[in-house]
Amino acid sequence: MENPRWSEEQIKDLNHAVVIITGGNSGLGLEQAKVLARKGATVILAVRDMDRGHAAALAIQNAYPSATVEAMKLDLTDLESVRSFCSMFQENYNRLDILINNAGVMMPPHSLTKDGFELQFGVNHLGHFALTGLLLPVIMRTEYARVVTVSSLANSWKGTNIYFQDLQWSTNYDRQRAYSQSKLANILFAYELDRRWKAEGLHNLSLCAHPGWSVTNLQHHMNGIMKRIAHFLSQPAEMGALPILRAATDPNVKGGEYFGPSGKNQRKGYPIQVESGNLTHDRMLAERLWKISEELTRVTYPI
């Protein structure tokens, strides 16, 4: 299966495929959207800022006149917005081949979503958990549909865990640990979703990927020194998008895999299947997170 220099050129024609990319108007999401639209997919940019979303869609269409790209409103800080997006999408589309849970926030000052969740856990994990669950009927009607959830090297930072005693960091907020918690939650969710689909004998696939150290606007909450270090060690967003694109399109994947860059410490390079940390394979942890995620979002998965 391994291709040490896998690139977007390996992606086959995607005519008739429908794709949703959260946060598809900038950074990694925009790079994914450009490639998938060029390959013929109908691409939905699920974005919070509709002006930027429309601008991104127009830019892609100007670059690739035959592309089909649409911006739709999705605010992952607001579960009501998530529900509205899912209803609108399912009114207009009867299939969903690829859902890329890409949007995220990284190490902001402590703040809460509209539903009272710590911002990073709320957007990076709970918002996407609700989105995927509410889109599940159309995903499961689309044979071999995929869900790709974007994690980060932060999932295995020292001390990372799911802090069930205070998931929303109401006391002693640590922006770095809150971020790594949300990225660990991403992988736990992706693996657990794939296990549940396989247990039902379904052909849908859930995968996870990370971009290594990539230059995006996600780092704008970092301090100056950390930004300079990250920039020196990082790769362009076009390269960072490749592991996600491989997870979304490689015909050889079986589900439950994790993709990242091939270079030292998975910081840079072409995408390969990589190993995730020990905690990501803890099924009891995943099941506990799943249960509380359903309770917090009030979105129950019919599997």
TrEMBL record:
Matching InterPro entries: NAD(P)-bd_dom_sf, SDR_fam
Record keywords: Oxidoreductase
Alphabetized Gene3D superfamilies for the sequence: NAD(P)-binding Rossmann-like Domain
Record-linked NCBIfam families: PRK06197.1
Family: Belongs to the short-chain dehydrogenases/reductases (SDR) family.
Protein name (Swiss-Prot/TrEMBL): SDR family NAD(P)-dependent oxidoreductase
Classification of source organism: Bacteria, Bacillati, Bacillota, Bacilli, Bacillales
